[in-house]
Amino acid sequence: MLNCCIERKQSRENTALNFDSAEGSSTDEEEFFDCADNPDEENKRKEKYSLWNQPVGRLGKFNDLKLLRTGDPLYIPVTQEPVPKSEDQLEEDTDVLMKLGSDAQGSELRAKMMSASLLSDMESFKAANPGSVLEDFIRWYSPRDWIESEDLDEWGQKKGQLSSRMMIEDNFWVQTWESAKPVPAHRQKRLFDDTREAEKVLHFLDSTNLCQICEMLIPVLCHIAIYRLAEECRQISHELPDSVDRLRALIKSAERISREIVASKFVDVQI
User: Fold this and answer.
1) Keyword annotations for this protein (predicted)?
2) How many whole angstroms separate alpha carbon 106 and alpha carbon 108?
């Protein structure tokens, strides 16, 4: 995670430099903003870009589709990268999602948990496609929720309609679309705060004892040992024909042991 934070920070800084070079001299208001301490200021910035009504942050055309209202080509927007998750974070998220259930209320809560990412993608899409509507976004973002018909519209493409779940009155997707402003990805609040996450990692390492550090190093050391054995097997495979099979058995044993350790920890926590 720490390495990921460093890579994201370097990538973000390079992206900011590229946009500054493309747009000329930059001011404080033009830089990538990654916090929203004052909601009013954030809304003003979003309104400023909506007034421009100029396409920003286009990655490329999305097949031959056209916007339903204007007939302009539908463009794939440049979006923020997905938020990286460590194994323990993924396990926590999975546990929470499983507890929500599969009913309508659970689906609604699940969608709200993803609201930050969905809002970011909607704002990027609006910035790249001025004059677009929710149906345009759905055709790119969730094609299974767009039911096509055989009739053609005025732009020569198949007509269609939203799926039943998207046509529910005041559903979460509609609410999020209405609140989204046309803001390109590099001007949005960051979904992944690399600085804060790096500080969490450093705090965790600082508060970890020697025994816990050794335990965390065991998988890394096992991986290095197996990698070294694999290199040696290539050199002696003609002398020991069963060396490859033994190495595979060793890898399976290492996988089983590591999974049993994780499972035992999970049981202890549950108890």
Assistant:
1) Cytoplasm, GTPase activation
2) 5
Give the whole-angstrom CA distance, residue 48 versus residue 43. 9
**Interval 116-162: pLDDT, tens:** 889 999 999 999 999 999 999 999 999 999 999 888 889 989 999 99
Q: CA-CA distance, 254 to 243, in Å (whole number)?
A: 16
Compute the distance between CA of residue 211 and CA of residue 216 in angstroms, rounded to an integer. Answer: 9
> What's the pTM value of the predicted model, to 2 decimals?
0.64
Q: Which helix H or strand E contains 77, and what residues bound it? A: strand 73-77
CB contact at 8 A, 110 and 48: no
Specify the long-range contacts of residues 165-174, CB closer than 8 Å, at least 24 apart.
166/134, 166/138, 172/108, 172/111, 172/112, 172/115, 173/111, 173/118, 173/134, 173/138, 174/134
Distance between CA atoms of 132 and 127, rounded to whole angstroms?
9
Q: Could you tell me if 33 and 42 are in contact, meaning their C-beta atoms sit under 8 angstroms apart?
A: yes
Per DSSP, the three-state class of 66 is strand
Q: How far apart are CA 255 and CA 251, in angstroms?
A: 6
**The predicted structure's pLDDT at residue 33:** 46
Alpha helix positions (H), 60-171: 87-100, 104-113, 115-128, 134-141
CA dihedral 169, 173, 178, 180 (to 10 degrees): 170
